[in-house]
Amino acid sequence: xxxxxxxxxxxxxxxxxxxxxxxxxxxxxxxxxxxxxxxxxxxxxxxxxxxxxxxxxxxxxxxxxxxxxxxxxxxxxxxxxxxxxxxxxxxxxxxxxxxxxxxxxxxxxxxxxxxxxxxxxxxxxxxxxxxxxxxxxxxxxxxxxxxxxxxxxxxxxxxxxxxxxxxxxxxxxxxxxxxxxxxxxxxxxxxxxxxxxxxxxxxxxxxxxxxxxxxxxxxxxxxxxxxxxxxxxxxxxxxxxxxxxxxxxxxxxxxxxxxxxxxxxxxxxxxxxxxxxxxxxxxxxxxxxxxxxxxxxxxxxxxxxxxxxxxxxxxxxxxxxxxxxxx
Amino acid sequence: xxxxxxxxxxxxxxxxxxxxxxxxxxxxxxxxxxxxxxxxxxxxxxxxxxxxxxxxxxxxxxxxxxxxxxxxxxxxxxxxxxxxxxxxxxxxxxxxxxxxxxxxxxxxxxxxxxxxxxxxxxxxxxxxxxxxxxxxxxxxxxxxxxxxxxxxxxxxxxxxxxxxxxxxxxxxxxxxxxxxxxxxxxxxxxxxxxxxxxxxxxxxxxxxxxxxxxxxxxxxxxxxxxxxxxxxxxxxxxxxxxxxxxxxxxxxxxxxxxxxxxxxxxxxxxxxxxxxxxxxxxxxxxxxxxxxxxxxxxxxxxxxxxxxxxxxxxxxxxxxxxxxxxxxxxxxxx
Lengths: 327, 334
Prior knowledge:
The complex is a heterodimer of chains A (327) and B (334).
Chain A: E1 4-13, E2 21-31, E3 36-40, H1 47-55, E4 63-71, E5 74-75, H2 81-87, E6 92-95, H3 109-121, H4 125-138, H5 144-149, H6 157-169, E7 175-179, H7 187-204, E8 207-212, H8 215-221, E9 224-229, E10 232-238, H9 239-244, H10 249-256, E11 307-308, E12 314-315
Parallel strand pairs in A: 3-8, 3-9, 6-7, 7-8
Antiparallel strand pairs in A: 1-2, 1-4, 4-5, 9-10, 10-12, 11-12
Helix pairs in contact in A: 3-4, 3-6, 4-6, 6-7
Chain B: H1 2-29, H2 34-39, H3 45-55, H4 61-73, H5 87-122, H6 127-141, H7 144-158, H8 181-187, H9 191-228, H10 231-238, H11 243-271, H12 275-280, H13 286-296, H14 299-327
Helix pairs in contact in B: 1-14, 5-6, 5-9, 5-11, 5-14, 6-9, 7-9, 8-9, 9-11, 10-11, 11-14, 13-14
C-alpha cells in the first residue's frame, strides 16, 4: 500500500454567473515512501491545483473538491480546517515556485523557520533557533546563525529557495510537494536545488511529488511520471519507459519541444501547435484532439479510457504512437 | 538612521525660508489690512495711515521682511495685532487644544477603522463589507460642519449626554501648567478636571474623525485584500500555522504599511487646525484663531502660526518615514 493514494481527484471552480471550470478532472496516482513522482504538463493543465487540493489550500469559496487522497490511512480531502492545520507543515509540506514572494518580506528568515518548529514540534526560544540554524546548514546555507537574523531581500534567489526548503523539511514530513521549485531560479542554481532535494529525499525516505513543466527536471530525478493534460492524466509510466517509448501524442510533443545537445545542427524544435485553450471537454472526446496530429475519427465522441500495458505503463489514447516510431 | 533624521531636519531650514517669503508676499497682497479690521468702514484716511505707520506697515516690504527675519532668528514671532499678546504665547495656549482634538479624532479613526477595514476584507463580499465600504463613502461625503451640528443637536442639546461647547466646564477652576487640559488634570491630580476635558473632546473628536475614519477603513480593506492574496500568506498556511499567527504576523503586519503612511498624512492635516469643528463646538484650538486672524489681517499671527504648523507637519512626516522603516526592513533609511 502506497503512502499516498490519490483516487479520482477532481476540482471544479464555480463562480456566480460564470460557467463551471473543471480544473482537475479525475486524477489518480500514488506515491510510495522515498519515491519521487512527477506531475508534468503545460501551465493550466491542473498540476498546481492538484497540489493545492492535497494541501487543503484551495480557496474555501468557489472551489469544489471531489475524490479521495488516502495518506497513510487519513483522507486528506475529507479533513476539516483544524485537522488540516495539524497535518500541514508536519506530515505534508510544500515548496513553492517563487521564493521571494513566498517568504514574508518584513519578518527575519529565522522567525519564518522557527515558527513551524514552534507550531509542530513544541520547541521554543533557543532550542528552536538552534534547530533552525542546523536546518539552514543542512540545506547548504553558509553562516546560518547570521542568516537567521536577515530578511528575505538580503538573501540571493538560491538562498531563499534553500530557506523555503529548510522550512518545508523542518518537521521531517513524510510527503513533500514541490511546485515548480526551480522555475524562478537561474540554471546553475536550478541544478543545485534539484541535487539538494534529491539528497533530502534519499536521506529521509520522504516521498516527493514534483510538479513541473520541465521534462529536464523530470529526467534527472523522478521515478514515476504522470503527464497531465486539461485536468486528466494522459500518460503514466516509469521514467525510463516514458522517455524511451512515449505512447501519447502529447507526451511525444512535449519531448520533441525540448532542446537537445545531440540534435543535428540547425534542426528546429517542434512546438505543439495551438494552445491549452483549444481543448475539447473530456466528455466529448479526447481533450488533446484539436491539437493532435494523430487524430482519427474515434478520438471524438467518447472520452478515451486509460489503456494499461503489462509494464505498468498506461496512456489515454485511442491512436497511440507506435513504440518503434521514436527510434 | 541618525544621519537621515539630521539631514531631514536641516532640510527644514531652506523649506521654512522659502515658505516665509511666499507667505509674506501673499499676506501683504491680500486686499485690506489690519487697519480696516480695527477701524471698520468708518475710519478716515488719516487714521488709517496713522495705524499703518504705528504697525510699521508703511515701510517697503523688503525692510518689513528683514525685520521679521531678524526677530525670527531670535525665536520672536512678534505680537498679535488684535490681541496684543505675543504670537508664541497665543500658539502655546491654543495648539494643545488642537493636539488633544487631533489625538481624540485619530484614536477613534484608527481604533474603529483598522478592525473594520480588516473584517471587511476577511469577509469580502459580505453585508459587513458592503456596509463598511458604503459607510466610508458616506463618511467622506457628509460635510463636516453638518455632521458636527447633527452630533451637537442630538447628543448635547437633546440628550444632554455631552457638553455642547468649550474645552472644559467653566465651573471647574483647574490650573493649566501646559494647556493640555487632560494632561494638566492628570498632572495636578485634579481627576474631575481631566475627566471633564475628555468629556468635552468626544463630540468634536467624533465629528473630526469622520473623514480619517472613512479613509483608514478603505485603505485597510484594500491593503488586507491585497496581502491575503500574497504567496507568503499561502506559505504561512502551508506551514499549518494557527489562524491567529497567520493573521497577526503575516497578514496584518504587511497590510499596515500603506495604512501607516495615510495615518501620518491625516495626523499632519488635522494638526493644522479644524476650523469647522472648532467653530461648531466653540473649541479653542488654532483653527478658529487662524480663521479670525485671516479676517483681521493679523499678519504676525498668520506668519507665525503657518510657519509653526509647517514645522510640525514636517516633523510628523519625518516620524512616519522613520516608523515606516521600522515596519518594513526593505525601506532602511540611510
